[in-house]
Amino acid sequence: MKNLNEITKQELKAIKVVTFDIDGVIIPTGTQLRENQDGTEFYMKSKQLSTKFIKNLKILKKYVRLNFSSGRNILYLKSLVNEIFDQDIIIQAENGNLTWFEGRIIHPVYSTNYFNKLRDIRERIKAMMLTDKRIRGFEPKMFILTPHCDQMEDIPNLVKQIDSENDLYCLWTNEGYDIGSKTMSKGQGIINIAKELKIDPKQIMTTGNNYNDKEMLQSGKGVSVEPDRIQAEYFIEHKPEELGGELLAEFLLRYYAS
Questions:
Q1: What pTM value is reported for the model?
Q2: Most CB contacts within 10 A, which of 35, 67, 198, 229?
Q3: Number of domains the chain contains
Q4: Which helix (H) or strand (E) holds 117?
Q5: In 3D, which of 50, 33, 51 has the Cα closest to residue 42?
Q6: Could you tell me which of 35, 49, 220, 41 has the C-alpha nearest to residue 136?
Q7: pLDDT in tens, 203-242
Q8: Is residue 139 part of a domain?
Q9: What would the pLDDT profile of 195-210 be if each residue is shown by its tens digit?
């Protein structure tokens, strides 16, 4: 990996889209979620973009298109970027499964068997919630399943047990597990956007800090903000109290200003 300061002007000139991961990249991690066992009560609290970052994004989108890619649901992502949202903003939710692009939503088609597996896994985890306080509830999603919980082998083992065909991934997110189809990832989402825009995926700069960002960092011009955890072509240095995505925006604005 190379420090982002080593990226060339030729590489930066070729960039047409900048993709920001969300948690731990442009907002601090630390979502609070609590759901009762039968799903009749639900509470969720997360962070918001800083005023300074929103101001920088308003300038940055004059030079490149902005994409926001996350395992989060699409309604949350839309509310997160409302202050800069327009026809050029791209949103990719649920690890690439839902893409808002120029007024339409793009998504894959899955079999009934796929959704039945997610249902069965969800029901088994709900049963575990009765006695296991490490499981706090489920984040609302359409195409993937995200139980919020402590890191525990019980859930990956349950996925392996129900998914005998080995079609599903089960990735730790620091707040729980994302469970979904191996045929779709944030990386495939980047490839899909490149096809829509008729550009090379490497003309899309991507950021990330966690395991579900691996394919996205490989597909695009990857910039890791947590190089000790996830690798990419480039990395960006930051202090513990800083957000790598905010520093990336400032880095790009200095380039465009010059």
A1: 0.95
A2: 67
A3: 2
A4: helix 112-129
A5: 33
A6: 35
A7: 999 999 998 999 999 999 999 999 999 999 999 999 989 9
A8: yes
A9: 999 999 999 999 999 9
